[in-house]
Amino acid sequence: MIFVLLAASCRSAAAFSLFLDDPCTVTDFPALCRGTIKGQRNVNAATDVAIAELMKRTRQARDIAKKELKVLDGGVSTCLSNFNSAFDNLDKALKNIKEGDQYDLLNENVKKCQYAVRGELYLRASELQKEGKKIIFTNVGNPHALGQKPLTFPRQVVALCQAPFLLDDPNVGMLFPADAIARAKHYLSLTSGGLGAYSDSRGLPGVRKEVAEFIQRRDGYPSDPELIFLTDGASKGVMQILNCVIRGEGDGILVPVPQYPLYSATISLLGGSLVPYYLDESENWGLDVNNLRQSVAQARSQGISVRAMVIINPGNPTGQCLSEANLKEILKFCYNEKLVLLGDEVYQQNIYQDERPFISSKKVLMDMGSPFSKGVQLVSFHTVSKGYWGECGQRGGYFEMTNIPPRVVEEIYKVASIALSPNVSAQIFMGLMVSPPKPGDISYDQFARESKGILESLRRRAKIMTDGFNSCKNVVCNFTEGAMYSFPQIRLPPGALQAAKQAGKVPDVFYCLKLLEATGISTVPGSGFGQKEGVFHLRTTILPAEEEMPEIMDSFKKFNDEFMAQYDNGFGYSRM
Amino acid sequence: MRRFVIGQAKNLIDQTRRRPPQPHHHNNLRLLSLLRPSASDSTAVYSPRLFSSSSSSDMPGSDSSTSSLPVTLDSINPKVLKCEYAVRGEIVSIAQRLQDDLKTNKDAYPFDEIIYCNIGNPQSLGQQPITFFREVLALCSHTALLDESATHGLFSSDSIDRAWKILDQIPGKATGAYSHSQGIKGLRDAIAAGIEARDGFPADPNDIFMTDGASPGVHMMMQLLISSEKDGILCPIPQYPLYSASIALHGGSLVPYYLDEASGWGLEISELKKQLEDAKSKGITVRALAVINPGNPTGQVLSEENQRDIVDFCKKEGLVLLADEVYQENVYVPDKKFHSFKKVARSMGYGEKDISLVSFQSISKGYYGECGKRGGYMEVTGFTSDVREQIYKVASVNLCSNISGQILASLVMSPPKPGDDSYDSYIAEKEGILSSLATRAKTLEEALNKLEGVTCNRAEGAMYLFPCITLPQKAIAAAEAAKTAPDAFYCKRLLNATGIVVVPGSGFRQVPGTWHFRCTILPQEDKIPAIVNRLTEFHKSFMNEFRD
């Protein structure tokens, strides 16, 4: 009896479909099986029932055996212990079925999604840190974590908004300058209930107005606060917009490769298709419209309807700044191909050269005039996490929509309203970012000194870093024109590729892990951002403190040159 | 024999492991669709068209001027179109317009202000934040204050100590940095200790995922559990529309179970069983049971016995229990107490391996009501490590939740203790708010029960009353003529006559043919008599106009 049941349950589990009208048809003893599993259609559940039944009966058999064979000689006790190990194994089988079930049933899109910035390297780095090793985290653009001090004025204003009762204290002036006090009162007056009340789901109207004024000053074209939504960081905004655009896997989004993995992760979570276009490393990560055409044509030939295009300007992880001419081409392309352009412009303050200052997609679009200015749909994103602010932990951002029909805006509003509202203190940070102290304000000098200090230092660090990489054997790195990252190419010798293969690692992951173990520098392998096949990179931020920079680059060089010496057997390299 | 049994068991294990990653879904779908040719017309598949007049009837066909654009109403994600969120729906839009108009046109209206009773947003209605919490937050926002001697004159000594303690837990004392995607470890330690103190059972900080309010946590779990409309989530009706909206956005099926209004919005296990079977027969795999305790919008507090039955039900049926416990501090009646589902499960002897349980908590509710901070957490227990990794991955795509929300969540779970400098003022503030909420709940409930054709269960907890209104046929006919749901019709009239904003019951779903509205108990106590008067007068004139 026991064997029969077990065989039945095994056979049913062996059928590779979890749901059957009658799982027992695949067993050798269907009638017995049916009697046991009582109508279960899920094979796992049926097996579960069968095993439980089997355990019950085995237990009974053991008890009977115990009773009948009163003399516990060697043979009987072996038999009993055999019973016991059978229980153990059955228990394990049950557990396995249950665990398998839980994971198997998860949303496939979730399982598919990858997010490298906090992946294997980051986890290993965290482990090493716990073991007491000094880790230099250059994996995330997280300036304050690497010692950048927050700007004083905005922190003063937000502290006052956090504790509004201070504003009534006669001694408040001992701790806060008058313009911070005035500004705190201003922002509190824009809220309905201070930082503790939900705001409008699109953000405080008063702050959205300040954002619109900022955009108008920046671009020279009017901006409508009704088309600006504040968000908990730019990532949330990107997710909201992509959620609106992507209907299924037939919808494709053009994404630069290398790209910031937020895009690949979100597209995969939403079940859409990522359509890659390659940036040209030899042209300083330039964006070639011919490449775009090819990518779109190829996707369309596969039945994918390409609906939107992402640009990251300045580039992440590639650090290039797009020229006005290039942006024009892109906008024309979007017009012709009917694509929504998602302009990730979160690094617009982070520019480290003078030939190509930041120019917004919106300005270029408006400059182009009819029919483009009315015919291209554009959503641009900004944040308080980057720039010289670096207020990542606040989770503040906004997006501005251009040429999006009012009814679609309403739908986006509706979805935003399910999350109730973005956090209010970050909204105030955003207000302060777009309307910082002006010349003549009490805090102006300090604010200007602090922000200039950070930007100039970042510019110097960008140079130290790219120069440092370019001085290393088999490493080539484009200059970081903007953003917060260097993305050097590591030309791995065949010996290293071989060793990586043996270790079961992607070659750049292998290299980055070795780098981490040897120097404590935590980077992100290029494979997390996408790269051409056979070419390997890593991404570091340029954010470590300036005084530590030379030492970091020295230790990188030492590691790299030793690594290359170890694996270079003189047979050439991975392709440039 | 031994070898045989062990061998078979091993085979079984191997086969379970070797199962290809996703065959069952396709097979499952195909097979189930054979069983039931069209699942989309199932009554269990929630089709939320609440304010048909406003959004659905005129939806198809976008403006001709925009039809050449890539993104129009016709071409956006249909799941986005499908989801509804009534708490901020049409009535609120009307209210906002009225509010704007009131500024310039005061004499045109029979009221001088709009009173928002539509949303649990206490501080927008004048509730003051807890001083200690805000002191700590201010100090953490501008850490330079901690070095100033004048600070000791303006801040309580324990808030300064606490701020130091929190800063020491943040790597580099950097409150402006992204944190661990689950939240700052030290703050999670404090939360776990708070849960342990609450429940008397251990809590693991690695089980805590901090989120921007409770809603993103609910979204994350829905995203994880729902693959298609074949995946169902059991939700209470009436329910907080976050659930219906989130399920719609992720393309799943809402499997309703009705709360019994006659027994004070009781949750019957027999009803759960019935709805589960019904869903199964429609080919839906029910993945989870959502329970809101204390209830929103219904305000009931579950008894421990009822909770035990629910836990057993989930265990037996293999359902994930999604426990929305954001109102855990809001209990107003002496005969009821809040028990967390985790405590109930653990006290039944069920551990990690017995039940998958997610408990949601928020800093937006309770006596603190810090909605604008967007802080909260979910405690995730009873999941295998591979599933946990997936939750972590999804959390990491959004980097982390906001730090001041994280700090506040830790404060809420570890408030001042007896002997601390702020303890007395903290307790006075907390008790003041909670006892006032209890008074307001009672006053409003009594007033509502006095109205013709209105019955209202008591608000044992949470922040809402959900009265049932028997509408005269004439009113229903008038609503139909105005192409609006009868309860929405009533609520619009109420708004236009009194400036009071409430949410029609249809936004939460209700037993067909019954009509309700949700009204928060949050207006400040001194405003309650005026609200009662206006409401009573309005109701009388409404009934006079429409009485059959």
TrEMBL record, chain A:
Q: Which domain of life is it from?
A: Eukaryota
What does UniProt give as the signal peptide span? 1-15
Task: Give the InterPro entries listed for this entry.
Answer: ALAT1/2-like, Aminotransferase_I/II_large, Invertase/methylesterase_inhib, PyrdxlP-dep_Trfase, PyrdxlP-dep_Trfase_major, PyrdxlP-dep_Trfase_small
Cofactor(s) listed in the protein's UniProt record: pyridoxal 5'-phosphate
- One biological process GO term for this chain? L-alanine catabolic process
Q: Which UniProt keywords apply?
A: Aminotransferase, Peroxisome, Pyridoxal phosphate, Signal, Transferase
Where does it primarily localize?
Answer: other
Q: Per its UniProt record, what SUPFAM superfamilies does this chain match?
A: Plant invertase/pectin methylesterase inhibitor, PLP-dependent transferases
Q: Which Pfam families does its entry note? A: Aminotran_1_2
User: Where in the cell?
Assistant: Peroxisome
What terms describe the molecular function in GO for this protein? Answer: alanine-glyoxylate transaminase activity; glycine:2-oxoglutarate aminotransferase activity; L-alanine:2-oxoglutarate aminotransferase activity; pyridoxal phosphate binding
Q: In which pathway does it act?
A: Photosynthesis; C4 acid pathway; Amino-acid degradation; L-alanine degradation via transaminase pathway; pyruvate from L-alanine: step 1/1
Query: What GO cellular component term, any one, is given?
Result: peroxisome
Residues annotated as domain Aminotransferase class I/classII large: 179-554
Catalysed reaction, written as an equation: glycine + 2-oxoglutarate = glyoxylate + L-glutamate; glyoxylate + L-alanine = glycine + pyruvate
Record text on subunit structure and interactions:
Homodimer.
Q: Which family does it belong to?
A: Belongs to the class-I pyridoxal-phosphate-dependent aminotransferase family. Alanine aminotransferase subfamily.
The protein's name is Aminotransferase class I/classII large domain-containing protein
**Organism classification, top ranks?**
Eukaryota, Viridiplantae, Streptophyta, Embryophyta, Tracheophyta
From TrEMBL, chain B:
Gene3D superfamilies linked: 1.10.287.1970, Aspartate Aminotransferase, domain 1, Type I PLP-dependent aspartate aminotransferase-like (Major domain)
Using the record, list the residue span of the signal peptide; answer none if the entry has no such feature: none
Q: In which pathway does it act?
A: Photosynthesis; C4 acid pathway; Amino-acid degradation; L-alanine degradation via transaminase pathway; pyruvate from L-alanine: step 1/1
In short, the EC number is: 2.6.1.2
Q: What class of enzyme is it?
A: transferase
Keywords for this protein: Aminotransferase, Pyridoxal phosphate, Transferase
Q: In what residue span(s) does the Aminotransferase class I/classII large domain sit?
A: 173-528
What are this entry's molecular-function GO terms? L-alanine:2-oxoglutarate aminotransferase activity; pyridoxal phosphate binding
Tell me the segments the record calls region Disordered: 51-70
What cofactor(s) does the depicted protein rely on? pyridoxal 5'-phosphate
Q: Which GO terms describe its biological process?
A: L-alanine catabolic process
Recorded superkingdom: Eukaryota
Q: Which family does it belong to?
A: Belongs to the class-I pyridoxal-phosphate-dependent aminotransferase family. Alanine aminotransferase subfamily.
Subunit (UniProt): Homodimer.
Q: What is this protein called?
A: alanine transaminase
Q: Which organism is it from?
A: Brassica campestris
> According to the entry, what is the taxonomic lineage of the organism?
Eukaryota, Viridiplantae, Streptophyta, Embryophyta, Tracheophyta
